[in-house]
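Task card 7
Instruction: Convert sequence to structure tokens.
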Amino acid sequence: MVNGEKTRTIESIYAPLTGMRIPLEEVPDPTFSKKMMGDGLAIEPMDGKVVAPIDGEVTLTFPTKHAIGLKSKSGIEVLIHIGLETVNLDGEGFEVHVNEGDQVNIGDPLVTFDLELIQRKAASTITPIIITNEDKVENLEITGEANVIAGESPILHVSVKKEMKEERSTLMKKGTRYSDEAKAIVSAVGGLDNVEAATHCVTRLRFALADDKQVDKAALEKMDIVKGTFSANGQFQVIIGQGTVDKVYRAMVNETGINEASKEDVKAAGGKKQNALQRGIKVLADIFIPILPAIITAGLLMGINNILANPGIFGRGAPSVIEMYPQWDGLASMINIIANTAFTFLPALIGWSAVKRFGGSELLGVVLGLIMVHPDLLNAWAYGEALDAGTVPTWNLFGLEIEAIGYQGQVLPVLFASWVLARIEIFMRKRVIDSLQLLIVAPVALLVTGFLTFIIIGPVTFTVGSWITDGLIAIFEAAPIIGGLVYGAIYGPLVITGMHHTFLAVDLQLIGSTETTFLWPILALSNIAQGAAAFAIMAVAKEERLKGLAGTSGISAWLGITEPAMFGVNLQYKYPFYAAIIGSAIAGAFITMQDVLATSIGVGGVPGILSIVPSGWISFGIGMAIVIILPFVITYVIAKRKLNTH
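Output:
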């Protein structure tokens, strides 16, 4: 209407996936958690099927297949971004069933994806569902249950403010090629000379810059087209929005002289900016994160076995459950076998993940790991006793005595051997003709790596691992209070930097060498401390959104996942984070002084007690009380004084 008369429509948006609903603020990506793209929510999917959440038109598909945009009949634009950082998969594991311009109804299939592959290769499977044209929304209400079913559960009610009269400036903007905006963005990121590579995904421009200090963030934030900026993994990212970002990128290529680059080009260029320590940490994270589900499951099961098989759990001097009830012995034995498998064959798990990370065939990595724990080899846990008795078995290799020992529970030997295997395989694949690769590459790569492992890599890294283990034990024995205090204090900051993944390897090395670890209990208490601080914010806050965010992220932290509490609440206000550090430092000092040990690494937080040696349960319980009470009280008192900020 020419008089600009407005009408309102209520639009219901249904769940595009089956899974658990998550507040947008808890999504571990600032593009979505800070609502740079718009408001909405996210879903942690239970399967790999995406369906239409509205009746309308498909407005956007992407070559990488990881996102899809739709427009409802009332004009609401919805973006479904499947997983986080899934653009780097370049379409692997995704299949799109619609084309741009197709009309769809609620429940029609849009995309299917390999959920297991996304879990393994992407940053997260959490899928944001965003309303990208908030100017047409008068009110947005999250509705329905926490568990949602694709195509059946309503998740959002949107009050649409529909203007029949189009604004002239909007139409003109859509008709331009965004050349002025593209030039301004390039200038703001330091000019053409500062851009080493540039690409884009469904929502943002991604730059690998020579010097991030040259970026004029103030200039970028003043641009209407820019919804936000941030840096991550060596990339500077400028949030533009779906449907527009590709036009801006095209204008940038055409008007500024920037060369087109792939996501891998930008990722590689950004990675070069990281120092050696950062690159090393990232490599360890890439190797250990994919095998964490198996390790955590094993840890939990070993905790159950501890309850059944260890004496003293139900009182000092009390017999174990299986001693009191012998009929449970078979069950405990079966649980022990299932639980121990992941740790017994740990080199196979690490070999699979490491060789894959280094660019080789993961199947060869599994075989390499199994070679290192072959039953004909002396078990690594029996090596010390055999060495004292002088009964270590050896091979005589042309006069050279090689110890025939296995590497059960060891980390360093299989890491280095996996790197060597991948390098040999890559080298040979480039030089052996295709018809002979199956007969030559794998056998030669495994044979050479096997010999090097038993002759050089294994003995050297086994010794280095023993030095690391002995050194840590010596430090914590000499000054347990200081060791526990320092590790308890630094673990939270380590999570922020990602360096905590390094200590996963240390924990596994300690368990492999001594059958216990004194670091994991401190980690579990650090999780609880972050959760307690978040609960204090929940108790003080009056804003419903903050209350909900603090409550759900606090529960998550107590179950061992601290990132939502840390990044969503505690770091935002800072003093809850500091309070959590104080609590975990004091508790860490106490439990280390009490010689609290864990037999495995499983879920952190409150369930972490299942991994604790039963003799340390009381001391660990006192440590739990410290990290619950101290961070909560400190945060509560300070938050009460700053109530208006919450």
